[in-house]
Structures are given as structure tokens and as C-alpha cells.
Amino acid sequence: MKKNIFLAMAVSAMMLTTSCGDSFLEVNNPTGEPLEEYYTTEETLEEALMSAYSPLHWPDWDGTAYNDLTVDAEILGDDFWVGGSSITDNQHWHKLFNFEGDGNNTLATLWTDFYSGIKRCNDVIKYCSWGGATEEYRKKCEAQARLLRVYYYNILWHYYGNVPFYLENLELPYTAPQMTADEIYNQLLPELEDIIASNVLPMRWPATESGRVSQAMAYMLYAEMVMYQKDTQRYAQALSFMKEIIKSPDYELNPDYAALWEESGEWCQESIFEVNYDDNAAQRDWGTAMFAGGSVLPTLISPNTWPGGDGWNAGEDGWGFLPMRVETMEMFPEGDVRRDATVWDVREYSYTERYQDTHLWLKKYRPYSDNNKDCPTSKNLNYNNNKRIYRYAETLLNAAELIVLTGGNSADGLNYLNQVRTRAGLKGYSECNIDNILNERHLEFCGEGKRYFDLVRTGYAATTLVPDKYGYRTNSWTESKKHIPLAQSELDADPTLKQNNY
């Protein structure tokens, strides 16, 4: 039974917002003490902090919609279909896949989930200023909340671009100015730089605290944002941060790529940040979707009416979303060990086929009966597959790319690139260039939600995300598709919000 720092939400820390235009629920302490007196110990501050971590769990199923971040990103790319029972099943995914989303067909719940997280982080930061706990604890608690807040804004920034921004919780009328994507970036990067400069967080937490944001996670978030923004002035600093991780004894490539996706591979030496999930006691259920617990992702992305076999018992049920394209399996070179670790090939099995079914599925997060065996009920909501967010392999490939972009030492860049390449069982490249790096990222991170954003930031989206020969995607990506539509419900709640020009 693995350690999971994301506890079920403490009653004393429960607070929720549904949009920038709605009022916040009062934060009431069940003991009756004033909040200023309650949140003054490490124990009570930890309750509030765990509540701020909790929204990391919500996107796959938050009681309203399924918007797992892996699926959200991959359906926008070129490696998977949307699937499901029909083109109207989770219709917003199908609309976004074809670049025809609108206010009623968008990733609406991401807004709710992560603004809730931002609100909770703001509360933690305020509580930390009240004193009472040790200074060392308060600094680490506040730094975690601040870094989580940047991470939540980063997701909103990637998808929506132009969003309301605030660092202190809102009062009546509960609205904040909507900033452009560039303005959001210019607010977040100094905040992230200040968090990093404080050097409060460890490069890696002890195993018993795995799941907390760390200094290395902050470095990875920094590089991701700087590279996506094409902020050339910060490339050198981002490269410096990647080199800090590379020289750290805390991280290295795991020798066995396939083992990364097993339960035993969670939080191995390659893992920089994961979202923890467990299958204990059915903590997540249909009526308690926002409790910490298991993941719904394996159910979402697996075959329907499974007959039994390959580690998954008969009677288990998948929903058939995110079938893999045949071309995706075929892109792996002969001998690349990542193919069999990435592709779950079930062409020999008979089951109920759903829309766009290829009998090829994402193996990295596929269901195994052992991964929900400790859950007595609602097993399809409670797989214990951790969500991998940042891996050391990405550190190496980021460093290689930043070396190219800054005109750095090409021998170092080639070394970093080929560490990833040769771990996969392939002969190394002879040159470190952007095309080779992007190719390696495509193979290395297939199904991890990186591909679409790589295409957008490198300028390849317009020529890659085009109509396919099957007639599923009939529209092409254009620059106006970079930011998806805001939900109509948010526009109705706050008339000052401006819809993206999608």
C-alpha cells in the first residue's frame, strides 16, 4: 500500500469556488475557533496545504465531467483518436479534436478545478503569515502553495491563454481582470523565479513525502513555460536549471523504460513530479469524486467489455476513449523498447469495439486488476496508476534543446540527447538539432500529454495537425486555435470576460 500525501479533504480546510463570477463558500472551522487562531500549528496548516494539493486529482473526474489532462492534450495532437461510444460521447473532446470547439464544447471543468486550487493556495499563503508554526515549516508550506499556484495557472495559461489573474482571494463582486496570455506569463515568471531563488524546497523530498512539489519540479515548470513562450531572454537561465538537475545525485534515467510505468517504478530515480493515486478503500466514488484516491484514467482509455487476459480480469470494463492511431505504433523504429512499453496491442482479443477503435491502446496507463485490487467498490474509479508529470528524460531533452537554442556546447547537447536515445535500445544520433530532439520527444513522451504543446511551440502544428485520410479530423489547426474557448457558463457569470477568438 503506497504512501499518498494527498489526504481526503479536511473539513477545516474545505473551500471551493465554481467561477470568478460566483461567491466563495465561507471557510468555517468546526471547532468554533476563529480561523486566525486555528491555522497556527503545523498540523492545521498541513490540513490546508493538503486541500490545496487536492485539485491535482480532479480533472479526470470531478463529479461533473471527464477532462483528464493526458486525454485533453493527446486528443489535440496527432497520435490518438478520441473514441468513446460515438462522436457524441464526451462531445466536447470530439469538437476540440476537430478544432471546432465553442463555449458549450470546451474543457469547462479545468477552469473550475484549477481556480479552486488557486483559491486554496491563496488561503494557505495567508494562513502561513499568521505565525504559530515553526518558521522553517511555514516557509516550506508557503513555498509549496506558491509553486502549486503557478502550476495551476500554467495549465489555465496553456489551454485558455487569456484568463483572470489574482494572487489574493476575491471579494464581492468576485471578479478579477482578464489578462492576455503574455500578461499572465509576465506575472507568473517573476513569481516562479522568486520561489526558486528562496531555495526553501528540497531538490527531492524523502520517499515518505513523495508527491510534494520540489525545487526540481520548479526548475522543470520554469523550462516548460519559458520554452513555450519562446522567451529567448530566459533560455540561458532555463538551461542552467536543467544542468542543476543533471548534476544532482537525486535524479538519473531509470535503466528499464518499461518499468517506469509499473507501480514499482513510481517515484523511481527518474521521477521528478507525479500525482499520487491509490486504490485504498474506494475513497473516490460517484458521490465523492473530489476526494483523494484512485484514478479514472485507466478506465477511460481501455477496451469495452474485456473478456479477460493480459493482467486484466474478465468483467472489467473500459470506456474506449483515446484509441491509438496505427501510425503511432508504426513510428517507433525497429528495436525501440519504448514501443512495447507504450502500445497495448490487443488485436488478438475480441471485445465490444467502440468508435474509432484500432485495438491499440496506451499501455503506460492501461488497467491491471492488481492496480485496483485494494478497492472494494467502484473499482473503475480507483486505479492506483500515478500520473507522471515530469521525468528526468525530459530534463535531458530540455537541456539539449536549450543548448541548440543558445548556441551552446553541441557535444553536451548530443550527449544529453543520446542518453535518452540509447536507453531506448537505439543507436545514437550523430547530430544534436531541433528535428532530432523533437523526434526523440515524440517517441519518449508518447501518451504523456507533451506532443501537442511541442507542435504548437515549435511552429509545426499548422503543418502537422491537418485533415487525416480517415475523415475523422476534417479541419486544420491555425494560430487562432492555440487558446481554446472559455466556457459559456463563465462568460454568463462574468460579463466582463472576453471570449477567445477561436
Features:
18 helices; mainly alpha; two-stranded antiparallel ribbon; 4 strands; 502 residues
Model description:
- This protein has 502 residues and is mainly α.
- Helices cover 38% and strands 3% of the residues.
- It is built from 18 helices and four strands.
- It has a two-stranded antiparallel sheet with strand order 1-4. The chain has a two-stranded antiparallel ribbon with strand order 2-3.
- Helix 13 packs antiparallel against helix 14 and helix 13 runs antiparallel to helix 15.
- The longest helix is centred in the first third of the chain and has 25 residues.
- It is globular.
- It starts with 34 loop residues before the first helix and ends in a 9-residue tail after the last helix.
- About 4% of the residues have low confidence.
Summarize this structure briefly.
The chain has 18 helices and 4 strands.
List segments where confidence is low: pLDDT < 50 over at least 5 consecutive residues: 7-26
Taking all Cα atoms into account, the compactness measure Rg is 22 Å
Chain-averaged pLDDT: 93
Q: Based on helices, strands and strand pairing, what is the structural class?
A: mainly alpha
Helix content: 25-40%
- What spatial form do the alpha-carbon principal axes imply? globular
Query: Which percent range describes the beta-strand content?
Result: under 5%
Outline the biggest β-sheet: 2 strands, antiparallel
One letter per element, helices H and strands E, the order comes to: HHHHHHHHHEHHHEEEHHHHHH
Treating each run of at least 4 consecutive H or I residues as one helix, how many helices? Answer: 18
Record field, number of beta strands: 4
What order do the strands of the largest sheet run in, or round the barrel if closed? 1-4
Distance between the termini: 45 Å
